[in-house]
Amino acid sequence: MKEITFKQAITEAVDEEMARDPTVFLIGEDVRALGAPRGEFKGLFEKYGPERVVDTPISETAILGSAIGAAITGMRPIANIMYANFLGVCGDELINQLTQMRYMFGGKIKVPVTIVSYSGGGFSAAAQHSKTLYGWLMAVTGLKIVVPSTPYDLKGLLKTSIRDDNPTIVLYHQLLLRRDIKSEIPEAEYAIPLGKADIKREGSDVTVVAWALMVHRALAASTKLQEEKSISIEVIDPRTLVPLDKQAIIDSVKKTGRLVIMDEEPKTGSAAAEIAAVVADEAFDFLDAPIKRVCAPDTPVPFSPLLEKIWMPDEEDLIKAVTEIM
Asked: Which residues are catalytic?
């Protein structure tokens, strides 16, 4: 076993897949000299050269459009769309081309594009560089969505995403990438299947579903609830929103009878809303209390550090929601 950070998880996953498969290549802004703004691709240009680490102009439309064209002719591109907010710039490529083509052509082509992108707030990057877009992306049919919370999960899920023959987006939270969060991983190669949730903490009183940064806040709140109120929290990390491991969530709700979903995005149209609907539809009879959603307000992400701290869901918000349904 060895320890790695979020940044190392990305570097190792991409490096291993590029070494394994010559059709895998990386395309995006500043991926050569800088290795992207956080340096997660550092060293790959020197190792694989200009044909497999491709710098582009500042054009998300060009990045994703080129990746789609390469994918349908047999390549396996990793498209670096720097911030999730910028997916709106290549909206036609994402909504009408990438995610629809395999279906429209009756499965005669594959579109194995992996989009990687920063998401989330917490460091005053303001409204245009802090969105998560989980719910918005869930509405794009044909797109698999990966939302890891640990370096272990990130590496295994990113490798699986690159090998998938369908479009996938891997969203890594900026605070997790910036902080020194580490995981133990095996020295040997491993991959994690998409659509398989992980129980980050077992409990008996309340099920909390959270992903990405919110997993860490849910775990901190769970410790406090256990110590101060003797409330036992089960923390479910879906790891992928599409495909969603509905059964893992439903099985947990059957055990606890209560559900709180912690989601760092505005409540309206959120991934939390979709998960709540799934449980209300398929496990309503097992609920002993209303489903609660701990989400951000329906506003853009504030620039002010103080306002952003209030805007983002935190441990106290989760503790309040859990206390209300106990």
From this structure: 129
